[in-house]
Please model this.
Amino acid sequence: MDLTDFKAKDIMVQKLVTSNPDEKVGSTDILMVRRGVGCLLITKDEKLVGILTNRDIIRLKNSTDAIHKTVGQIMTKNPMTITADTDLKSIIKIMVTHSIEHLPVIENGKLVGLVGHNQIFRSIMKLI
Model:
């Protein structure tokens, strides 16, 4: 087995934590802590429109008007995505090249999963 044997569909998280772009950042921060996730997938009309990560929130903490911001104002819009058949080697290359930790998985225009660094580490551990 090697990195190309693992596909996104084999390692992705399917229980997704989502929010909408109109939500206040403070409430999403609490949701992320309660659910133990490093990012929220931002959807509107069942379509992925952005991603909000811990890094985005940390950058905002020094802002004096942070409490008034919405998710849509600070999220990464139109995030990079992969398909369920994207192999692990390609996923790692995308993440390293673009300095990202989470990749939403899209199939037929629908959000179906998420691959993050934890899923990658677990997959690599199976190889060693």
